[in-house]
Design a protein that fits this description.
Elements lengths: L5 H10 L7 H13 L2 H17 L1 E2 L6 E2 L5 H4 L4 E8 L2 H10 L4 E5 L17 H9 L5 E4 L5 H17 L4 E4 L15 H9 L5
Parallel strand pairs: 3-4, 3-5, 5-6
Antiparallel strand pairs: 1-2
Length: 201
């Protein structure tokens, strides 16, 4: 943006580099920060600095944490025989909020996407191999989603695990018709998945 005082221009440029924030939104944010009392604005700046200084990556699962290992990996009540593999940290958060899972996690750091230049070497596969080689895990749960990238990643992991760790069971999250929905309103892909992963009752 032109004709902005340089300090304001600097903040606008930094804010507009955030995902989903354009120059106009960045300018509105910067103007809001200018209206804040100085202690509040300084507090935000300090929180950002603290975020970088005090967060680390868990050496076991790859999660963001303020301790290493993270609280989930360090929790003795967790089921050590189950490992839920997710693409990113926010997927772990959603799984934890949903409840019902008491095992451990591993974060791949993304999904395979050749079009975006994300190949197997870009994922944390060595960390996954190291964890599985300890011999404590009997089941790997693939919780990657149903996008094309997620399916490709799941297929790659399945092949890798079957070849390198044949004694470990591999499962995936159930897919299909959500609770409260009627069959007549489902799209074809959802119905196909529901039939493919039907369960005995």
């Amino acid at each position: 943006m032109v004709n902005l005082p340089q300090p304001l221009q600097d903040v606008v440029e930094r804010l507009s580099s955030l995902p989903g924030v354009g120059p106009k939104s960045a300018l509105r944010m910067a103007m809001t920060l200018l209206k804040w009392p100085e202690p509040q604005a300084r507090g935000l700046g300090q929180s950002i600095l603290s975020l970088r200084e005090n967060l680390s990556i868990c050496s076991v699962c790859g999660s963001l944490s303020d301790s290493d290992p993270c609280s989930i990996c360090a929790d003795p009540r967790r089921e050590t025989g189950q490992l839920c593999v997710v693409g990113e940290w926010d997927s772990l958060l959603v799984m934890e909020e949903a409840g019902g899972y008491g095992g451990r996690y591993f974060i791949l750091g993304g999904l395979l996407s050749p079009l975006d230049g994300i190949n197997p070497g870009d994922l944390e596969l060595e960390g996954l191999r190291t964890l599985l080689a300890q011999g404590n895990i009997g089941e790997v749960i693939l919780a990657l989603g149903t996008t094309g990238d997620a399916e490709a990643t799941g297929s790659y992991l399945k092949n890798m695990l079957q070849k390198e760790f044949p004694d470990i069971g591999i499962t995936r999250l159930a897919q299909g018709i959500p609770l409260g929905a009627e069959v007549k309103y489902m799209d074809r892909n959802t119905l196909r998945q529901s039939l493919a992963y039907r369960q005995k009752i």
